[in-house]
Amino acid sequence: MLPFTLPSDSAMMQKDFLYGVATASFQIEGDAQHRQPCIWDTFCTTEGKIADGSDGKVACDHVNRWQDDVELIDSLGVDAYRLSISWGRVINADGSINHDGLKFYISLLDELNRRGIKVFVTLYHWDLPQHFEDKGGWLNRETAYAFAEYARIVTTHFGNRVYAYSTLNEPFCSAFLGYEAGIHAPGRTSRQEGRLAAHHLLLAHGLAMQIIRREAPEALAGIVLNFSPSFALTESEEDLQAASLAHEYHNTWYLMPLMLGRYPDILNLLAPHERPLIHPGDMDIIRAPMDYLGINYYTRTVYQAGGELGFEEVRVDNVPRTDMGWEISPDAFTYLLKSLSEEFDLPPIYITENGAAERDSLVDGEVYDPMRLDYLQSHLLAVHNAIEQGVDVRGYFAWSLMDNFEWAEGYRKRFGLVYVDYDSQARIPKASAKAYQGLLSHRRAVCQK
Ligand code: FCB
Predict the structure, then answer these.
(1) Which tens digits make up the pLDDT trace of 243-269?
(2) What is the full DSSP assignment across 144-203?
């Protein structure tokens, strides 16, 4: 298998550029009986919400197989591993600590550290304990304070085992997909609720930043946001305006409060009751300085004028797409990194997720995944191009280490570098895993010269 390649003088071929793979608790862990039920457990039992009717009870059975999985991660030759903590596995509903759950994560972190693999810990990758949802979930301001207490417990117990913390993964998905579009847990469909949930998530982030700074001063602290750069269908004034409104509503709604302490102007287009209730001091908490920004990128989105807020998404024909139906556009990735860096004074960036779903199949014990090979190669180059144009990117994580529970799509969409046979739980590195491994061993050889 040919390795992924980058120009030999690329900053991404230097020793200090971090390469990793990423996962998230609910998507891989299983072992649901030893943690609190979360909103995704509930969502999975709701008729019609998960495409294949599956759930996260077993997933990749990672809790029982974590030692082999760490071996697998190490065998790829990566510098870092990004994982998330299940809130309900470390804290019980009455607020007491689940010591077995904590011990599981601490053993995992110790083993990764022993192997010299840097750990990026995400505190919240969407699996809100259901008992909080029963009290309003992210619509309840108290959830933000409960999150800060969870962050305190995690950071005090993990000590120096963590290289970088991110408070939240993709608050856009939690807030918009969960409370506004209804396609993720908890499945609510109100603009007012979506905007309020987003505000409380950002507040939770800001409160947790204070805790991480205090309890884990050595660790990097930041957040992970997802972006789909907005493009206009035509060059008409109306479509250009539509793309810019969509950018504010879906992208800078999260980034601007973090960087500038205010929401973008599209806030003023909302009816008063749809605007989030902002308490005095909230925006100062939210704009806490960060050591890094995690960026997740998969695809771009095209808009035309229309819709209630002035923009509507258009699906363009005749473009290459992944098995998710997402357009493949590496140039939009470079554009995103460049344009965000121009729009804001960003801290260093880590690409915390990037990857593609492909309809993989196991043939004679092997998985050949040409589309993913192409996708990853072109997107690695897209990051290289952004760095060449002055963007400060320090690392790249492929999504995902292995196939896993892909939220509303269930197990049918495979994003892994490693194939998972869910019947036997066998892990089989795909061609793309070998190409990634090849890039990393080539870099090691070059760096040693
Ligand atoms: C991102 C999520 C991640 C995974 C990828 C495909 O939005 O953070 O968990 O599902 O999409």
Answers:
(1) 999 999 999 999 999 999 999 999 999
(2) HHHHHHHHHHHHHHHGGG-SEEEEEE-HHIIIIIIIIS-SSTT----HHHHHHHHHHHHH
Ligand 1 atom with least separation from CA of 226: 7
Query: How far away, in angstroms, is 159 Cα from ligand 1 center?
Result: 27
Domain architecture of the chain: domains with CATH: 11-448 (3.20.20.80)
- Is 366 in contact with 426 (CB distance < 8 Å)? no
Condensed to tens digits (0 to 9), the pLDDT of residues 168-208 reads 999 999 999 999 999 999 999 999 999 999 999 999 999 99
Give 1-26 pLDDT, tens digit per residue.
799 999 999 999 999 999 999 999 99
Q: From the alpha carbon of 173, which atom of ligand 1 is closest?
A: 7
pTM, to two decimals: 0.98
Distance 9 CA to ligand 1 centre (A): 31
Residues lining ligand 1, Cβ inside 6 A: 24, 27, 169-170, 173, 226, 296, 353, 399, 406-407, 415
Angle 210-226-232 (CA atoms, 0-180°, nearest 5)? 135
CA of 417 to the centre of ligand 1 (A): 14
Quick check: 319 pLDDT over 80? yes
Nearest atom, ligand 1, residue 415 CA: 6
Which residues are marked as active site? Answer: 170, 353
The 10s digit of each residue's pLDDT in 27-38 is: 999 999 999 999
Angle between helices 99-114 and 62-76 in degrees, nearest 10: 20
Give the per-residue pLDDT at 126.
98
